[in-house]
Amino acid sequence: MELLISSFVIIVAVALSNIAARYVPKISSTYINLVVGIIVGLIPMTNHLVLAFNNDIFMIFVLAPLLFLEGQATPLLIIRKKVKNIVGTAVILAVISAAIVTVAINQWFGLLISIALIIVAISTPTDATAFDSVVSGRKISQSLRKTLKMESLFNDATGIILLQAAILWLSTGYLSFWTNMREFLIELVGGLIIGAVLAILLITFRQYFLRSTNNVISSQTLIYILTPFCIYFVAEELGVSGIIAVVTAGLVHNSEANRSRFSSPRQMHLGIQVNNFAGEVLNSFVFVVLGISLERIFFSHYSAMTNSLQWLAVGVLVYLLLLLCRYVYARFFVTDKKRRTAILFALGGVHGTVTLAMTFSIANEISSANFNFILIVETVVIILSMLVPTIAFKLILPRDLEAENKPTELLRLRREMVKVGIERVKEMELSPEVQASVIYDLRDQVQKNTMNSFFQQWKSMGSNKDVLTGLQSVEQRRALMQVFNVERQYLYDLAKQHLVSSEYVYEIYSEILLSESLVLDPRNQMI
Q1: Quick count: other Cβ atoms within 10 Å of Cβ 290?
Q2: Alpha helices per DSSP H over 301-400
Q3: pLDDT digits over 486-514, tens only?
Q4: Radius of gyration of the chain from Cα atoms?
Q5: How do residues 439-460 score in pLDDT, each as one tens digit?
Q6: Rounded to an integer, what distance in angstroms lies between the CA atom of residue 144 and that of residue 155?
């Protein structure tokens, strides 16, 4: 029950923060999620209802499906083309950076080298979602964006292996290179194999029923939703990387979606909506949790933070050295190897909740004093990795004017389209009741109906059965079909004459098709 209440509070915070983000469009919604999370932590009642951060729950129920969805959104062909880049950034860069920064921290601050490696290993994974938040509203090359995304998909496993090696080093007093290398290869290759094999088996099972008369959309959807959890559980139980397994499974599922979308359009449409909904909620969920955690870390460790500033110095040094390593690597191996690209790549190594999850995962592995110190250091790394690029990108990257102007342009197109549609309705020979109803529906396409008119319609629908029957009459449906056709033709003509971006036309055109399905498809009928 406590877990249910805790999840409910966070989900409500997610809903409210996403609404609040619409009122401050110039600030990335991720930062709004973060601030709302901090507020939830500051309010005693809500803070009490939210359970302490649990690494296992977070990894299984939040990170696993999120990485699965990110993997599914990435074509496998891109992975094949960028294997060398992925190995370079997610493995070679991560390992070399860890070695350099570990030695530097050990020499400059006198920390145990195993403790230093723990700190650096936890700071290894980067976060694609966090990167999207800091670069929001700015233009950046797609090739660099893809490189950073590929790195974040796979370097989690490298960080986890390094962390396991560091914990073993701390407990035994020595580091076995070959043992850890063998462990790394087992986790990596095993995760790839288990993820791919299980994904293919599940796809085969679902496709068999999809292409038969015994297909059940609800069962198919449930199996699909459970896929990342099952694969993560199995991979971890077999002693391989659950993270790599779910990412691999997601990559395999990308091809399935592309080549079976018309076998059952309703199922495909439902699956896409589930993906979009889950992705948006989980991304917001991650940063609300991060906000709550940062607030708790600050207040619970306030005295330790004020007694000594070594944690701050270590955190700043770790971030700056990792930044330098990334810059040097990019100058030799990333895209065009130019100075500007190297700076952007270095700043793009943003850390987020994976880093926090890895930190909490060692709570029972090391002493309380060491854990508290590492926790505060990693908090500094997370904050700097988000704050510095947010400021820097505002200065060095051009504004994405197309993204800024998109909402205004879409609204203008919708208004002109609806105007054309209403003019067509007035030319038809319709009864006054049907004409008024159709015009009301069209005005809804641009949110032009007032609250008063909505409640009048709502009242009539609930109190007058004859009106209810009239709203669903053949006359009304045929009128809407004609109007939607006129609206689509209007958009098509604009695109054909290259008067507006095809992207805008496709977006509004698809909305019209969805609206038409609500009118015509018997399974979409609400009354």
Answers
A1: 26
A2: 302-307, 310-333, 339-347, 353-360, 368-396
A3: 999 999 888 888 888 888 889 899 989 88
A4: 27
A5: 888 888 888 888 888 888 777 7
A6: 16
146 and 303 Cβ atoms separated by less than 8 Å: no
Q: What is the largest CA-CA distance in the chain?
A: 88
Residue 173 phi, psi (nearest 5): 90, 0
Least confident stretch, 94-98, 199-203, 356-360, 418-422: 356-360
Which residue, chain included where needed, has tokens 């939830």?
A: 40
In this structure, how many other beta carbons lie within 10 angstroms of the beta carbon of residue 5? Answer: 12
Q: 399 has which bridge partners? A: 138
- The 8-class DSSP code of residue 335 comes to T
| Nearest residue to 131 via CA among 446, 482, 389 | 389
Q: Are 190 and 231 in contact (CB under 8 A)?
A: no
Please report the pLDDT score of residue 67 as a whole number: 83
The CA distances from residue 311 to 255, 301, 376, 383, in Å, are: 46, 11, 6, 13
The predicted model scores a pTM of: 0.81
CA–CA distance, 524 with 248 (Å, rounded to integer)? 35
Q: Do residues 169 and 115 make contact, with C-beta atoms less than 8 angstroms apart?
A: no
Classify residue 124 as exposed, middle or buried by CB count within 10 Å of its CB (0-12, 13-18, 19+). Answer: buried
Who's near 471: CB < 8 A, 6+ residues apart? 437, 461, 527
Burial letters for 295-332: b for 16+ Cβ neighbours within 10 Å, e otherwise?
A: bbbeeebeeebeeeeebeebbebbbebbbebbbbbbbe
459 vs 406: CA distance, rounded Å: 36
Q: In whole angstroms, give the CA distance from residue 132 to residue 34.
A: 14
- Distance (Å, rounded) from C-alpha 236 to C-alpha 6? 26
What pairs with residue 138 in β-bridges?
A: 399
Cβ density class 19-36: b for 16+ within 10 Å, e for less: eebeeeeebbbbbbbbbb
| Amino acid of residue 449 | N
Place of tokens 């036309």: 505
d(CA 31, CA 370): 30
Amino acid at 121: A
**Which residues, 6 or more positions from 163, have their beta carbon under 8 angstroms from its beta carbon?**
118, 121, 122, 358, 361, 362
Which residues, at least 6 apart from 390, have a Cβ–Cβ distance to it below 8 Å?
134
- pLDDT value at position 473? 65
The HSE-up count of residue 127 (CA atoms within 13 Å, CB side) is 30
Q: Is 125 helix (H, G, I), strand (E, B) or coil?
A: coil
